[in-house]
Design goal:
This protein has 124 residues and is α/β, with parallel strands linked by helices. The chain has a single domain, classed as 3-Layer(aba) Sandwich (Rossmann fold), CATH 3.40.50. 49% of the residues lie in helices and 13% in strands. It has six helices and four strands, in the order αααβαβαβαβ. The chain has a four-stranded parallel sheet with strand order 3-2-1-4, sandwiched between helices. Helix 5 links the parallel strand 2 and strand 3. Helix 1 packs across helix 4. The longest helix is centred in the first third of the chain and has 16 residues. It is elongated.
């Protein structure tokens, strides 16, 4: 729901993406199981990516989608989005974002973030 929680949603999305990219939940489990050395070696060998430089695809570029885009942009991510509704060209340009088809977004994005209401027209 767009409104006072836009920043909180944006912060959550960036944090969740970072936690998944860095495998923090799995690392926590492995550390608790006493597998620190082997798991640390595997994480170093995998050279886990952060958000900077990744392509983040946003499905929905309304109020919340734009707030999330701005948060990812601040972290150095590249942005693309899918939204059939007209959008603010100035904001798109300032974020260096590009409008793409849903299929292109899903096939090329490193991270996908959904920001559409669950209504019949958004169900695939």
């Amino acid at each position: 729901m767009p409104g006072g929680s836009n920043s909180a949603v944006a912060e959550y999305c960036v944090t969740a993406a970072s936690m998944l990219l860095r495998r923090m939940c799995w690392a926590d489990d492995e550390l608790k199981a006493g597998n620190y050395a082997s798991y640390r070696s595997r994480m170093i060998a995998d050279n886990l990516a952060g958000i900077e430089g990744l392509l983040v695809g946003l499905v929905g570029f309304g109020t919340i989608g734009r707030a999330v885009a701005q948060a990812f942009h601040r972290m150095g991510a590249r942005l693309c989005f899918f939204d059939p509704a007209p959008t603010d060209a100035g904001l798109v340009a300032s974020l260096d974002a590009c409008s793409v088809s849903l299929a292109d977004l899903l096939s090329s994005s490193d991270v996908v973030s959904l920001h559409v209401p669950l209504v019949p027209s958004t169900q695939i």
